[in-house]
Design goal:
The chain is of the alpha+beta class. Helices cover 69% and strands 10% of the residues. The protein has a 5-stranded mixed β-sheet with strand order 2-3-1-6-7, with helices on both faces. Strands 4-5 form a two-stranded antiparallel sheet. A hairpin with a 2-residue loop joins strand 2 and strand 3. Helix 2 packs across helix 5. The longest helix has 64 residues.
Length: 436
C-alpha cells in the first residue's frame, strides 16, 4: 500500500511543489504591493512637507522683498517679491484645480511646478490630494492651507498698492510704518498656519507609518496561516483529487460520444456503432434511419435558439420511446437524428419509421403561447449483408431522406441499395413480427 502511494506521489510531485510554493509567492507579491503602496504614500507626504518648506520660505521672501521695496523703491526688489510670491500662488492654483469637478489634473501639475516642487514629486502630490483628502490629518492640513488664501490675496494687493503709491512719489514715513507693520502681521499669520500645516503632516506621517507597519505584520501572519491551511488541505485532498480526476475522465469520455444538448449519442458514436454492426454480418438484417425535422428553422427564426433547443430535447425524448435496448438513437447535428436498428427487417424498419412520423405529426410544440406543428422527413436504408461500407450506408439513408423532402416532406422514404429508390408500404401494425 505504501509503495503504491509513493508511486502516485511521484506522478504529482511537480504540481505538489508548485502548490506548496505558491503561498510563498503570494506572500512576496502582497508584501511587495503593500511596501510599494507604503513608499508611495510616505513619498507623497514627504513631498508635501518639502513643498511646505519651499512655500513658507517663498512667502517670507515675498514679505521681505516687498518690505525692502517699500523703503527703497528699487524695482529689482519688487521683481524678486513677485517671483517669491508666485511660488505659494502656484500651489494655491494647483489646489483649486484639484477641488474642481471634474478635477483639472493638467492645471494642478502646472501649478505645483510653479510652486517649485520637483517634477518627480508632482504625480504623488496630485494622487495623495485626490484620493486621501478626506483622511483626517490631511483634511486638517488642507484647512490650514486654505486659511492662507486671504493672506496671499492681501499680500498680492499690498504689492500693487505699494507700487502704485511709489509711482506717485515718496511715501510718508507714517504711511511706510503702517504698511510695514501690516506686512509683519501678515507674515506672522502666514507663519502660524504654515507651522500647523507642517505639524499636522508630520503627525499624519508617523500615524501612517505605524498603520502600514501593522498592516504588513497582519498580512504576513495571515498568509502564514494560509500557507499552513493550504498544506494541510493538499494532504487531506490527495485521494479526493484522484477520485475527481477519475470522474472527470469518465465525464470527458461521455462528452466525446454524446450530444451535450439532448444527451443522445453524437455522430462520432453513431458512426462507430454503425461500423461495428456492419462488420458483424452474422447479426442479420440491419436498418438505418435518418430523420430531419421539417419546421425546425421556422421555430428557430421566430422564437429564438432557446426555443429550438427545447424542441430538439423534446423530439429526442420522443424518439427514444419504445426502443429496444440494442437500438441506438443519436443526434447527428442540427435538426438531424439517426437510428440504428440491429436485427430489423425492412418491413419492421418502415413500420417503426412510419410510427415515428405519426408521433411527430401528432406532437405539437408550444412556446410562449404559440403552437407549432412538427413533422419530419425520414429516410430508411435496409442493409442485409456485410459488404456495405459505412459511407455507402450513410449515403443510402441520406439519399432516401433527401427524396422524402423532395416529395413534400412529412413522409417516409426507403432505399434498398439497388438503383433507384423503392417506396415500401408498411404492413398493418398487427402483422409486424416482434424483434428479438
Amino acid at each position: 500500500m505504501f509503495r503504491r502511494t509513493a508511486t502516485s506521489m511521484k506522478g504529482h510531485s511537480f504540481l505538489h511543489v508548485i502548490k506548496l510554493v505558491s503561498p510563498f509567492v503570494m506572500v512576496v507579491v502582497l508584501q511587495a504591493a503593500i511596501a510599494g503602496f507604503s513608499l508611495e504614500v510616505m513619498s507623497s507626504v514627504r513631498a508635501y512637507v518639502a513643498g511646505e518648506a519651499l512655500w513658507s520660505r517663498s512667502q517670507k521672501n515675498a514679505v521681505y522683498f516687498l518690505n525692502l521695496y517699500l523703503h527703497s523703491g528699487d524695482p529689482g526688489q519688487f521683481t524678486q517679491y513677485q517671483a517669491s510670491l508666485a511660488v505659494p500662488i502656484g500651489d494655491e492654483f494647483a489646489r483649486w484645480a484639484l477641488e474642481r469637478d471634474p478635477v483639472d489634473v493638467e492645471t494642478a501639475r502646472i501649478g505645483f511646478l510653479q510652486g517649485g516642487n520637483h517634477p518627480d514629486d508632482v504625480p504623488g502630490l496630485i494622487w495623495l490630494y485626490r484620493y486621501f483628502n478626506r483622511v483626517s490629518f490631511l483634511q486638517e492640513a488642507i484647512q490650514e492651507w486654505r486659511a492662507t488664501d486671504p493672506i496671499l490675496l492681501e499680500l498680492s494687493v499690498f504689492g500693487e498698492l505699494i507700487r502704485s503709491e511709489l509711482a506717485n512719489g515718496p511715501i510718508q514715513d507714517d504711511r511706510v510704518q503702517f504698511l510695514s507693520s501690516r506686512l509683519s502681521e501678515l507674515n506672522t499669520q502666514f507663519t502660524v498656519h504654515a507651522r500647523r500645516f507642517s505639524a499636522v503632516l508630520g503627525e499624519g506621517s508617523r500615524a501612517i507609518k505605524l498603520m502600514l507597519t501593522g498592516i504588513n505584520i497582519l498580512t504576513a501572519a495571515a498568509l502564514i496561516l494560509l500557507l499552513v491551511w493550504h498544506t494541510r488541505r493538499l494532504v487531506r485532498q490527495r485521494q479526493t483529487f484522484e477520485d475527481a480526476l477519475h470522474a472527470e475522465k469518465e465525464r470527458l469520455a461521455w462528452q466525446a460520444s454524446h450530444d451535450w444538448l439532448t444527451g443522445l449519442s453524437n455522430r462520432r458514436a453513431f458512426e462507430a456503432r454503425l461500423q461495428a454492426e456492419l462488420d458483424n454480418a452474422a447479426t442479420g438484417a440491419l436498418a438505418l434511419i435518418l430523420l430531419d425535422l421539417d419546421q425546425f428553422k421556422s421555430v428557430n427564426d421566430s422564437c429564438g435558439h432557446l426555443a429550438g433547443d427545447r424542441l430538439l430535447c423534446q423530439v429526442s425524448r420522443l424518439l427514444q420511446q419504445d426502443r429496444h435496448a440494442h437500438d441506438l438513437v443519436a443526434r447527428l447535428g442540427g435538426d438531424e437524428f439517426g437510428l440504428i436498428l440491429p436485427r430489423c427487417s425492412p418491413f419492421d424498419a418502415v413500420d417503426i419509421a412510419e410510427r415515428l412520423r405519426r408521433s411527430l405529426e401528432l406532437f405539437n410544440f408550444t412556446w410562449d403561447d404559440r403552437c407549432f406543428a412538427v413533422t419530419a422527413s425520414i429516410g430508411v436504408a435496409c442493409i442485409a449483408d456485410g459488404n456495405v461500407t459505412l459511407e455507402d450506408a450513410m449515403r443510402r439513408a441520406d439519399a432516401a431522406c433527401y427524396r422524402a423532402k423532395e416529395k413534400g416532406r412529412n413522409r417516409v422514404q426507403v432505399e434498398n441499395g439497388k438503383p433507384g429508390v423503392l417506396a415500401v408500404t408498411p404492413r398493418p401494425r398487427e402483422a409486424v413480427a416482434a424483434r428479438g
